Amino acid sequence: MTGIPVGTPVEVKGFLRCEEPLKSEMAGQECAYFLSQVVREYYVTTRDSDGDSHRSRRSEVMASNEQFASFAIEDDSGVVGIRGEGAEVDALEVMNRFENETGGEGTFTLGGLTVQLGGGSRTIGYRYVESVLPLDAPVYVLGTVREDGHIGAPSDEEGGKRFLISHRSEEQLERNYKRTALLLGCLAVGLFLFGSIFLVVGVLVGVATMGSTAVVGPSLAAFSYLP
Description:
By secondary structure, this protein is α+β, with helices and mostly antiparallel strands. It has 2 domains: 9-168, no CATH class; 170-210. The chain has one helix at 170-210; strands at residues 9-17, 22-23, 30-47, 53-68, 71-75, 78-82, 88-90, 92-100, 107-110, 113-116, 123-134, 138-145, 151-152, 164-166, 223-225. The protein is elongated, with a radius of gyration of 25 Å. Mean pLDDT is 78; it is low at 176-184 and 203-223.
């Protein structure tokens, strides 16, 4: 990126271009990036303090394969290269398939790694998940200018700066972040109210126990510079 000092945080948005695309491992889709995972879903049984048992569903990643190709972003003003390694990637999900465990044995190869299936009686099944950055599609990048003029991850000396690649627009990301913040805010308010009610009930119980002597004390254009 000519004329912009190395290490400058920038936003870039346009269309993804890739001369040597990858082929995703599960869906077989041409792309500039893919993340493929095999996830085991299973039950665990726990007991509470009263001795009652509870069964909950959990998951673990059995195998994961993440790959980047060199790609660029193009818009009306030109083209800029992207070095995607080390990015937080918000990719488009192209596969999410669940297969029940039938009790048989089997294997699955992912990224050259052979995954042994048949995880025992607690295993519910396996989920096959894959996300990609598709070709010639809109893409948004928040990164740092590198010495070669590409946009990529900040250096070790520039820690704290974010490196994000997303198939969603800046506006969509902003709406998602606001929605998440709102949900967290509502959760915090709910917990506060619950805690307040619990405190009031505790005080009333204490007053009833102690009689009248109880005292309650205070308790992201083509690119833009970022600051």
